[in-house]
Amino acid sequence: MVFRVRATVATLVALISVSLAGCDRATTGSTNANDWRAEVKQVRMGIAGGEEGSVTLGTWKQYQIYLQSITGLPTKLYQASDYNGIIQAMASGQVDVGQLGAAAYASLDAQVGPKAAPILIQRSPEGATGYYSGILVRADSPYRNIEDLRGKTIGYVDFNSTSGYLYPRWKLRDQGIDPDSFFSKSAITGGHTQGVLALANRQFDAVAFVASGGTPDTGFTSGAYYELSRRGLIKLEDFRIIWTAGPIPNSPLTMRTGTPQPFQDIVRGALAAMPYDDPKAWVDAGLNPGSTYVAVDRNAYLGIIDIRKQEIAQRRASRPAGEKAK
Amino acid sequence: MIRFLALIFALIALPVTANGAPVRIGIVTDKATGCDDGLAKKVGGAAFVKHLQKRLNRPITLCGFANNTAAMQALAAGQVELAPSDQASYLPVRDKVRATLTARSAKGAGRVMAMAMVTKASGRTAPNLLSGAKPIFVSQGEVTHDAPLAGLRAAGVDPSKLGREIVAGDLVRAVSDLRAGKGDVLIVDASHYQRLCRGDKPNEKPCSDLKEIWRGRPSVSQALAVRRDMPKDLRYQLISLYIAMHLEAPDAFRFATQTTPGVASFDPTEAEALVEIR
């Protein structure tokens, strides 16, 4: 009898073990349990300060409020002073999600490979997913086309800026112009806003700039040049666009892939749903009404990744002998 | 001993957490009805089930229905988590379910957001007051004309009851025609609206003399719907998986779109995307 009871207890204990093991798998495997919240603890978002200043910050503050309400987690903004700051913050795991320009993503990709991935890009109401690079001059200057800038000075935005450095230089080469010998002098201004202000202050003959919210045919509505005018810091009529190139794939929202999968999917799904679920917050974030987010992957940026490699190779080739690579 | 055994039985009887419960996806098929773990193989949906199962880390079960109406009834009754719907099947259960995803065609402009603007002096305050009004369009394209008109139709405006159309040719002329009273309502897509009304100078409000009486998108004829009380986490996860399915799992995407060829991707959608006001 004692043996029978013991055997029954042993069987039941074994059954419980199996049952609980099953429960454990179910819980561990459950994407909807709050396990990922315990692991993530907070949402950390990175902003590149040089992009569009207050507009970018305003956008991210709306994202912050929105994502906090979705995830129930404290959501923090980390602002970097330049593109490299946000690249390094993502590469080192200090932020989970950030909006990088295409070239900045290409740089991040070169550093961490699949540890970070583009997840969403903006699509305009008419379906476009790209923006433009342009060259801006002062309206009171004699420059009317790119050839007029031969031997003049140009300001680029940042080595990691797509529209403000990488793409225009690549496109100029494509058009038979070597930007390193065509311009008498070039320098990095540190940001789109800084670039336009430097031109206003006559520090350069021309600057590379970002133009979005339209096409060369329709005209543009977004970018630091337009935001500075809205803030009363410049007048659009004091400048002239003499060259444009694009479209460039829009800046991707990028996430670290080492974070829990449910976290990545909830953030991507929630942000993609934002213009439909909360159109007011979308517009309050400074995003164009009618624009949306669409999913994107690394393939969309292969062209930019390749252009970046070409640019680095060009820089190395043109560096004086003995000078160390940056 | 009896207490001990009772405790053991109680532990065994603990329910598996709801989080581990299967996600039941409704499909319209003539191959089977009801939820069946073997249905995926029968209908060629193994890759789809595998993809969702892997990403959600939950069992996925396909549930077959003869038509969208049966699928929507099951969704409203809580027997599936996601199911296909159309306008007719959605309306009877719209208090319990909502549209959440729609297929985007590879061709065409998609669901372009548009706005209807009148002069403040016109006295018109809503789209239902546009009967007889002469509409002004920027141009005669799908984005600038057809999609905005489809959006207005979904908002209850019968295009046949509008006055004679004016196609201005460009935005400046279009708004000038409105202000000059040549037409009564300017109907523009969101991109043109942005260029018209955003302003380039501090505190500039180029549309301050105009009133926006409508903004919206064309309705959809089909959507994937979920229950309105679905936990947010799961809805956003499903949105995330569907909108990127064409990139991340092409085989799964082919199955998910097999009844609607020519689909480029899935888009999220507003809850009432299937509703047309009549």
Walk me through what this model shows:
The complex is a heterodimer of chains A (326) and B (278). In chain A, 47% of the residues are buried. A six-stranded mixed beta sheet of chain A has the order 2-1-3-10-4-11, with helices on both faces. Chain A is of the alpha/beta class and 326 residues long. Chain A is built from twelve helices and eleven strands. In chain B, strand 7, helix 6 and strand 8 form a beta-alpha-beta unit. Chain B contains eleven helices and twelve strands. In chain B, helix 3 packs across helix 11. Helices cover 33% and strands 23% of the residues of chain B. In chain B, 47% of the residues are buried. Chain B is α/β, with parallel strands linked by helices. Chain B has two domains: 155 residues, 3-Layer(aba) Sandwich (D-Maltodextrin-Binding Protein, domain 2), CATH 3.40.190.10; 103 residues, D-Maltodextrin-Binding Protein, domain 2, CATH 3.40.190.10. About 5% of the residues of chain B have low confidence. In chain B, the strands form three sheets. Chain B has a five-stranded mixed beta sheet with strand order 8-7-9-6-10. Chains A and B meet through helix 1, helix 9, helix 10 and strand 11 of A and helix 1, helix 8, helix 9, helix 10 and strand 12 of B.
